[in-house]
Amino acid sequence: MFTLLRSEAIRCTDTDRRFQDSFSETCARKNLTDEEKQKWSKALNDVGNIAGEDFLRWFGNEAVKVEKIARDVSDKLNATPSRNFDGMALARQPLLELYTAYSLIEQLLSNILNQDGIRICHLGMIQERLHDQKVLIVLDDVNDVKQLEALANETTWFGPGSRIVVTTENKEILQQHGINNMYHVRFPSDEEALKILLGSSLREKNEDEWKGVIHRLETILDRDIEDAIRVGYESLHEKEQSLFLHIAVFFNYKESDLVKAMFADNHFDTEQGLKILVNRSLIYMSTKGEIVMHKLLQQMGTQAVYREKPWKHRIIIDAQ
């Protein structure tokens, strides 16, 4: 829907085929009633006719464009009472989803076909352009099932022999998309880890420097590593974050039954919370029924507790 920002036409009343296709597809995907479609159509018309708005001047910041249109449409719909809408949960999200889908598809086709500046006119362009081609596609660091729906919803989109590889920290995304052939990447062996460490941190340094590096690795979490592993933690809801922090500080290598007992009075489904942490590769369960969190994740969790503002502390460490 937001592809109309790339054209010279800036009003929703213009008969841009890409806009029409986008609007129809979004309505169909969300099973909107005729009344809901009319409300959206009127709201978009009103936004397009707002005096003094010039979308072209926002050319340098696509995020601003999306946010501005979403906010204007939200204002229009909020001003139109309807018992069929629960706030903006139904209507606002598809706008942002659709814009993201177009961007992802254009990037994928540009990379595969080695053509810059590809522009799509509908969400079926991947199947249209690649259905007879044998391709290898790696979708790295997927964090939303909608990305898979946009880029590789069906195997029939690609030619025979094609392979699609998806990497993610969230196993639930693969399950939601019906992917059953999963491979869990294990930690390297001690020998492999030693080679990595020697190659990246200790080369051309003397013994004293080696000791300093080892001490630093044991006590301080590298900023780049922390930024990478913190993504999974920040994607959790507040109660799941609290569960993660408690495990990091108190319950690493403890039996899961103990954790469930400790959270029994908190009105929180601890068992489901543990499953979420497992699916997001933040913990795993040992054969003895113990909760195991990698040392780096434990360090990150402990540091997150230390950095909380005093009035937000959920856990107190070294109270003395």
TrEMBL record:
The gene is BnaC09g11620D. Pfam families: NB-ARC (PF00931), TIR (PF01582), WHD_ROQ1 (PF23282). The keyword Signal does not apply. Residues 19-86 form the TIR domain. It comes from Brassica napus. This is BnaC09g11620D protein. Keywords: Leucine-rich repeat, Plant defense, Repeat. Residues 238-305 form the Disease resistance protein Roq1-like winged-helix domain. Residues 100-198 form the NB-ARC domain. GO terms for molecular function: ADP binding. The keyword Signal does not apply. GO terms for biological process: defense response; signal transduction.
